[in-house]
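Subject: Sanity check before I submit

Could someone independently write out the structure tokens for this chain? I want to compare against mine line by line before I put it in a report. The sequence has 582 residues.
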Amino acid sequence: MRRNAWLLAILLIALLLGVNNTIYYFTTKDSLEDSLEHEMESVAKQIEISIELSRGGAEKYQEQIGRELRAVSIATQFALSPDVEKVSNSQLAELSKKLDMVGITLLKRTKDNIILYKSSSPKQLGYKTNTWKPWYQAFNQLFDEHKVTIDWGQHLTNFWTGPFEFATTDTSSIQKWGYYYDGTTNYMIDPYISYDSRQHAYDDATGVDKLISQTLKENKSLSEITIINPETFGEGERTTITDNGEVLQHMTQNPIINGTYKYEDPDDLANVKLANEKNIKVYQNDVINGKHVIKLFIPVDITNKVASMLDENGEPLNRYVISLVSDYATIQQTLDKQFVNIAIIIGVVTGISLILVYLFVTAYRKSQDKLVRKAQETYLDEINGLFQSIRSQRHDFANHVQTIHALAELGKTDELKSYAAELTGEIRELNDIIDIGNPAIAALIRAKGLQAEVLKVAFKADFNDINKLELGMKSLDMTRLLGNLIDNAFDEVLNYAEDQRSVHIAACQKTGYYEFAVSNTCLRAAELEHKPLFQAGYTSKKGSHSGLGLHIVKSIVEKYKGGINLAIHEPNTVTFIVKVPY
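---
Independent answer below. Compare away.
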């Protein structure tokens, strides 16, 4: 039993430590993930601010380029005839070289179109513009009203320009075109410059891609930053087919505005849509490209709409989405380190716990041994008392016989009857105790009977055929069980007047079990029905009672797979019924 108790204690400690370890591991994991998410949000906010500043600077720089294109347009107008038919392509080539332009084209309005009529570049000639949306709309507004009112691009007096974009006439080139018309000519002037000659150097130094590259370099946990166009994302590159059959990209409508998109996942489309439409942050914890990562999608509102970011209809975006990818390895490394620390702590705690369990078990064993010794001493005292009573009767037998003889000779019949009745009652009482069949219980009942006389308690015991008790239950445990119940009953009845002090113990053998019932007077019986009477430390008595008596009884009963319960069969009387199988 002791070995099993030790094993049970160790297994319990191991289980508790395992549960604690698991809880701590997942709590730490959640905490680290939350920390990483907060860090990603913080970095995303910094990127958002920096991107807006960079984008704002780039837009301002493009505005300066737009003013340059307008100035070139005015210079061109002064250098050329107001009649497009009197202007040659060679004149335009010479002017574009002098004004440091890639080229200059003149647009002529026909009955149903606007075409590239004259140009410094032969590739430009003959193109119709009615499919260039919303550019064609801007051209018509310039011809009709000498100003453009569509909600994007740069608007100056008699002038309009859009963002850098792939050229329809040369799909490999990114260019920016300016358009000027003040009504004094029969053509629109269109000077243009290349991205490489103006904007490229600026973007390399201060642009968004440069900013993203530096951010990734400084934040080792980040693997990728992507600026996403939520309106065109998932639809592939935005392209059209030119008049000469070439594929033309539309960089202003590209799904990926800036950054790279290597960590592609099927859930990205839904996450980008959710972030954009609900204007909320969206997290994704997944394995992508064989690497465990956390992705964060953050929507960013655009205060000042720009022509460089358009939706599928060519309208400026109201919002774009920043996607950040963070390597989960940073969390896993921390968790591994924490796991080692936890293992060390668990080892130390286990050792300390085992020592404490050993000390506790040792102390408990000593306490139990002390209780057993005390019970054994009480048992021996009660047995000795019973034997002493028997010896006293045998010793006094001659005296009783002589007294009876003397009363008979004297003819004192009444005195003889009275004396014989007293002697018979005492002998019968002792014989009833001896007839119980179990020496230990007989001794206990004898001792409690003597105690009851001193306490002026009416004590009655009825035992029927319990000779087989010793085969199932230790006599020592039975005396502890009944002793505690009787003592508990005595403690209760001493609260009342002598004529109300009644304690009755009854025992009998039934099919499969023994039944013991201890009843006593209790004027507060109804109050006890729902009290935790068998709980260690609980007591309803006044004074220094430990509250352990009934708890000990319950422990003994459960040890032998029995049961105990409180019954109230009659007013002002409580009965504790014990059933022990044999």
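---
OP: Matches mine. For the report I'm noting this point. DSSP finds twelve helices and 19 strands in the chain.
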